[in-house]
Amino acid sequence: MPNLCENKRSLFSLKYGVVSQLRAQLMNDPRHLEIKIVGNLNLSSEWFAWLQQQPETQFVIPLTRSLNTIVDLRSDTRHFVSDVELLPTAPNDPILAPLRLQQKKAAVLTALAAEKLQVRSGDKITLLATRNYAGLTEKGHLELIVENILPETRFSRPAAFVDLETVVGIEDFRDGFQTDVFPAMSGQVREQARETFARARIYAKQLDDVALLALKLRAKNIDTRTEAKAIENVKAIDAVLNVIFLVIAVTSIMGCILSLVGAFLANIDRKRKEIAVLRLLGFQSIGVMGFLILQAVILSSVAFLMSYLFFVVGSQLFNHILTNNLADKPFISHLQPLHLVFAFMIAFIA
């Protein structure tokens, strides 16, 4: 009898997969989780340690002054991109995840930057940083390996994600210091290690944490900017998606129950003669009813397992066909284990 619900189960899994995935993407979009610091400050290592310990913090990394994060990139004599953002990254960076830098002197380029440079993973590019030193204009050159290309859906502007040491080295270079990033360039020797940073890349764990974390920062006299309006819109959409999912779940369950009850009653009606013969042979009513229930349980269990196998094949087919036309969609048709437990219980009870 559960095979009568197979179409409903496949349709429910497809709807659940699409709706739940859309909800997860909206709620976990790192662009909505970012908290930007307004202006340039003097943020100490103690401040970064405090921020990292906050329960709302997902990711934080120091960032240099805004003017020092702008560089030029070149792949060859014909392909050049100016005014590219240079951003530090580290493991568990929400913008890059699941990508990450595997080595120093490497970069993850955004799709727009890679398109303008006409490069792909494994190619080499040259980073160019300009400074005025001792009355002269100097240009530092740093060769980088392109490790990965970040999709435009994750970061739409031309940018390069590199390790923090490279970003700090470029700021030191422009401030007139010697740096390992450009060892051939002259400059003053930094007598003590850097103790403060002007800004930071900050990401909250979830949407509800953004306002709380921003409030804590403002309490420390740090002006911040968040995607507050976008967050409210996402929450409103999330509420609508929850209602849609509830309607889908209720209608699917009710339809399945009605189908199972109807099939069971029709099965009893077809076997009226067989039941009458069993009664004439001396079987008690309880025994006959127990036999029918046992038969229904066995058939329901076998049919449920068979329909589940068909569902697995069908869902994989859905995912394979539909995801070819959708970017960053790991699944389309999907059910949670709890859904299968409920389906089996409904089949068993009905």
From TrEMBL:
Database matches in InterPro entries: ABC3_permease_C, Lipoprotein-release_system
GO aspect biological process, one term: lipoprotein localization to outer membrane
Transmembrane segments: 239-265, 286-311, 331-349
Principal location class: membrane
Transmembrane as UniProt keyword: yes
Topology in the lipid bilayer: Multi-pass membrane protein
Coiled coil: none
GO cellular component terms attached to this protein's record: plasma membrane protein complex
Pfam families, sorted: FtsX
Protein localization: Cell membrane
Record keywords, A-Z: Cell membrane, Membrane, Transmembrane, Transmembrane helix
Domain ABC3 transporter permease C-terminal: 247-349
Family: Belongs to the ABC-4 integral membrane protein family. LolC/E subfamily.
Protein name per Swiss-Prot or TrEMBL: PM1824 protein
